[in-house]
Amino acid sequence: MVRAIVDAMTVSAPLRPAPVAGGGPGRLRLGVCLATVAACVPYLTIKLAWLSGSTVGWDDPEAAKDSALYVGNAITMGMDAVAVAVVVAFTFRWGLRLPAWLVLTPMWIGAGLLAPIVVAVPIGALVQTLFSSAPLTASDNPLQGWVYGVVYTGFSFQAVGLITAFVLYARRRWPDVFTVRTKDVPRGATHSLQALLAYTATVFALVFAAAQFYWAFGGTSGLTADELDYRGAVQRLADGIMGVLALVGAAALVAIVRRGARPPRFAVPLAGVWLGAGTTFTWTLFELITKLGDPEFLDSGSASALNLSGLAGLIAGLLMGVTGAVLLTERDAHAQSASPTASRTP
Description:
Blueprint: H1 2-8, H2 26-51, H3 67-91, H4 100-131, H5 145-173, H6 191-216, H7 225-229, H8 233-257, H9 267-292, H10 304-338
Helix pairs in contact: 1-4, 1-10, 2-3, 2-5, 3-4, 3-5, 4-5, 4-8, 4-9, 6-8, 6-10, 8-9, 8-10, 9-10
């Protein structure tokens, strides 16, 4: 799915090929790159320490020795290392020569995972600190509070840096995407299928968003006892943001499929689909994997409402991504036929 999307985006404007030689990245690009890499360093340092056997940041040293946790730390450290590689590729000219899927796939995943964090954590933490006596972390949490502060502050700066670097990179590599109007995007042979998928995705997105809004505004039905213990302003705000992004992605996709006059620039609804589909799909998939890895997943404590909501979100995100892939693939084919000189490489 992602490969089809990014392959379709590799068509460069026939008269405006992306330059790849001469000059440096410029102060802005270099500054964004350095700031983003610096934001990754604390997280990478903590993970490296834990993988080396350190228990820094742990109140319960025995919990740090869990083998599943070791694997999880290795995976998440690798993901953050990929973020460093991606932002460097976005900054320097050699990144323009890389296959599009190699940089856009991790960016799609990263943007989807980081988007709720960059909004929910700082705002939710501020609200809970000012208006609630409850602590930001549970009293029985095996991790010390400062770890969360370091990690999520770093994630927030990483998100801002990665998105800024990506926009600067995309405007250079695919300038036509930022100039074409939505209503001018040609309708291909599969337009009817795209409409069907888009409206089906919207139904699932509405179901998912409704559940997320219910929990965001204080609802507790469908949540397990363990989940209720950790619910604060941050988690409730994250639920609300997940619901909003699911609706944004669905609405943006419908706007593209209908070739509406608003918003006029194709890049605007495309960004909405990109972020909405990425967030909805990656977070629900992450939660599904987490639950399937829990040996007690199928016991009586598993909440069916929460699981069904996650399934609705997973289907919505998947359908939005598939529809976007089909649409961009047809746009690619049309550009190739309309201009034989168009290149699939930057």
